Amino acid sequence: MAFAFAVKEINENLNILSNVSLGFHILNSYYTAGMTYKATLNLLSTQKRFVTNFKCHHQSKLIALIGGCISEISANVAIISAIHKIPQFTYGSFLPVKSIRMQFPFLYQMVPNEANQHMGVVLLLQHFRWTWVGLLAVADDKGDQFLQTMVPMLSQNGICSAFIDRIPKRAYFDELIDLMIKHWVSYVIVSDKKVNALFVYGEPPSFQILRVLLFLAPFLSLPPLCKVWIITSHWDFASLSVQKIWDIQTFHGAISFTVHSKQPQGFQKFIQTIRPSWVKGDGFVQDFWEQAFSCSLKVYNGLGERKKVCTGEEKLESLSGILFEGKMTGHSYNVYNAVYTVAHALNKISSQHRSFRGSLKLQDVQPWQVHHILRRIAFNNSEGDTVSFDENGELVTSFDITNWLMFPNGSVVRVKVGRLEPQAPQGKQLAINDDQIVWHQSFNQMLPLSICNENCYPGYSRKKKEGEKFCCYDCAPCPEGMISHQKDANACVNCPEEQCPNKEQTKCIPKDVNYLSYKEDLGIILTILAISFCLITSLVLGIFMKYKDTPIVKANNRTLTYILLISLLLCFLCSLLFVGHPGKLICLLRQTAFGIIFSVALSSVLAKTITVVLAFMATKPGSGMRRWVGKRMADSIVLSSSLIQVGICTLWLSTSPPFPDFDMYSLDREIIVECNDGSAFMFYCVLGYMGSLAIVSFVVAFLARTLPDSFNEAKFITFSMLVFCTVWLSFVPTYLSTKGKYMVAVEVFSILSSSAGLLGCIFFPKCYIILLRPELNNRDQLIIRRK
Questions:
Q1: Alpha helices in 738-778 (DSSP H)
Q2: In this structure, are 773 and 721 located in the same domain?
Q3: Is the confidence at residue 279, as pLDDT, over 70?
Q4: Does the residue 289 lie in any domain?
Q5: CATH code (residue 435)
Q6: ∠173-177-183 over CA atoms, to 5°?
Q7: Nearest to 667 by CA among 740, 733, 737
Q8: Mean pLDDT, rounded, for 519-536
Q9: Residues 6+ apart with CB under 8 A from 289
Q10: Residue-wise pLDDT tens digits, 676-701
């Protein structure tokens, strides 16, 4: 009908081939090679006489061929047309031969290379995330070639073929039962519930055979196929007349790639004028009319079965869509454009001759002369679509993605839901509107799943199943510290250094900053303790300064007492350097200030202890130690002991000073903001020197604890040094076993507790006597105790 309509339009158009009429012959190939060759040779012989390779008439007519619908017919026609250099236009499909342009230089394909459709199907499957699909291919050479191309292509794009089954090319009705029995096992495989997407590769005869197999399935107690059928432009839902009452809702929701088409104006009106008597000798329309309406155009007077007589006025629109759609389909649009391509080529040849050589009779034009025009032809058809061919003689066009709707009353509706543009940039070839697609009723209008197993959701990664295709996998949870943020991730990934996985391990979130802050409970408690001890120390210092002339204060070197109290006050204050966000200056001061101040305090304690020992030894008759007793001796001990620690800290700061640092790895979910010691060796040298001072003080005080002195501090110093050493010996393993703010808190606690130990053990007993037992704080009491 599209062929006839195009010829009618051109003959009535004065702007194309004026004074020239196009005619046409339509010949049936019967899907056999013999009839195809015979039909083609008929066109090259005298009309109504079959004499091949001879021209037995004087009338010359220029011939172009359009056909056939399937690749085999096109190839058979091309073998003969190539010999005579006759232009041939295929509107269905053609064998994808690499050297097709060399073998058939006069062939023009109204359908682009099917590789474009294969690519489109892959993009479609990826779009819907269908990775477990079935392949049905026609059982011939073209089907073999399709599978050899498609299976690796699917695999390269992350899609697996769940199964591969072959559709018979064609069969006679008496073979169908045997065929169905042979395909029983295949049918069960195809009905696999996991496989909801079927990619079918075939041509109209294969579809008719498939319909027969589906029709017979219920009689063999086989389940219905509720699938998404994905088909290429070669396929056409054409039915035999015997199939017109068969249910076709199995294919409801099918998706096909069809060559972009439109509905030319006037075509619907043209269709409505068709009658059995439309053209004399047109057996196609008459045969169709009888089979479609189940009537006869002839009146039978014999004894045979009498059929209903056709009136010739039956309405085509009353027929089911599967039998007669009444619209220009993709194949019809290709034929329509092929006719116009020939007309425009002839028109251009005629125009060129009129411009340069006068009028030309088209009867004198040889077929081979048309090709140099056809290869470069480009025009807009009546609907505004551009028609042109590439260097391979293939139509340059796009594909419509069509959703097929099959209704119980037999009507068929094609809905364009997307487009495939093979020439578009990578990633933009496929455009599809998911909301417009109507799926098979069994899916309840939900997007069908076609996967081997359930998706691996974020937080999990795919784990290969041994002995199975890569699309079949187990889901393994991501290891600790890793995430996957998409479905079916091949592997879990690590977060950036500054981020960590969330609880579900589906995304990376910023790590919390970890340092001992003034805003948190631990920091607040340590700060309150440090300030409280500072106040207590200040109070003790004030008491000693107020009662500086009392015997108990004068007895143990007031200067050393003041130095010790001030150094303890500074120790409590320096603990505040460890609380808060560490900066560059803070990091330089933290350990060095703590080490020097503590060394001054310990040096003062050591000087006090040595002073007690020397004072006792100097009281013995004839002792030479009297000259060593005095303020100068104590000051030199404090100064020399402190300067050694100052030297160690100076060396530390000049070689490898502490600096602010970020520890990304010690804690999984936190970034530790810390002061890097720079040199751990120097840090432990500072601690070691303080430890040595404490040990010497402890030993000397322990030896002097029994000396007969009324205000002997040796006992208190011994106990204070015991507390000090206990605290710092337990500090080292605790410090090394903790991370982040708790490591800092351990050091702050050690500073506070050891300083508080010195303060409490040495000064609280004296404060008790000064404030609560003043009667003991006098010279007479001192003399009595000495006696």
A1: 741-772
A2: yes
A3: no
A4: no
A5: 3.40.50.2300
A6: 120
A7: 740
A8: 93
A9: 276, 295, 297, 310, 312, 314
A10: 888 889 988 998 998 898 888 888 88
Which DSSP symbol is given to 778?
A: S
Show the domain range for 124.
114-260+398-443
Q: What domain count does the chain have?
A: 4
Distance CA 155, CA 160 (A): 6
* Interval 95-103 mean pLDDT: 67
| Non-local CB neighbours of 730 within 8 Å, separated by 6+ positions | none
- Over 80: is that where the pLDDT of 581 sits? yes
Beta bridge partners of residue 231, listed in sequence order? 200, 256
Question: According to the 3-state scheme, what is the secondary structure of 100-155?
Answer: HHHHCCCEEECCCCHHHHHHHHHHHHHHCCCCEEEEEEECCHHHHHHHHHHHHHHH
What does the alpha-carbon distance between residue 516 and residue 505 come to, in Å, rounded to a whole number? 28
Q: Which of 583, 632, 585 is nearest to 610 (CA)?
A: 632
Same domain, 574 and 707: yes
Asked whether residue 309 is domain-assigned, the answer is: no
68 & 192 share domain = no
The one-letter amino acid code at 633 reads M
Domain for residue 220, yes or no? yes
pLDDT at 171: 56
Mapped to the 3 state alphabet, what secondary structure does 258-310 carry?
A: EECCCCCCCHHHHHHCCCCCCCCCCHHHHHHHHHHHCCECCCCCCCCCCCCEC
Half-sphere exposure of 24 (CA within 13 A, CB side): 23
Tell whether 467 and 583 lie within a shared domain: no
> 11-20, 351-360, 439-448, 629-638: which has the highest mean pLDDT?
439-448
What is the pLDDT, as a whole number, of residue 786? 45
Q: Are residues 474 and 622 in the same domain?
A: no
- Give this prediction's pTM: 0.69
| 619 and 664 share one domain | yes
Three-state secondary-structure class, residue 530 = helix
Q: Which of 62, 68, 106 lies closest to 88, judged by CA?
A: 106
Tell me whether strands 228-231 and 197-201 are parallel, antiparallel or unpaired. parallel
The single-letter code of the amino acid at 56 is C
| C-alpha to C-alpha distance for 285 and 622, rounded to whole angstroms | 150
Q: Grade residue 655 by pLDDT with cuts at 50, 70 and 90.
A: very high
End-to-end Cα separation, the chain, in angstroms: 141
The predicted pLDDT at position 787 comes to: 45
**Residue 197: phi, psi to the nearest 5?**
-115, 125
- The answer on 536 and 628 residing in a single domain is yes
Q: Which amino acid is at 572?
A: F
Residue type, 294: S
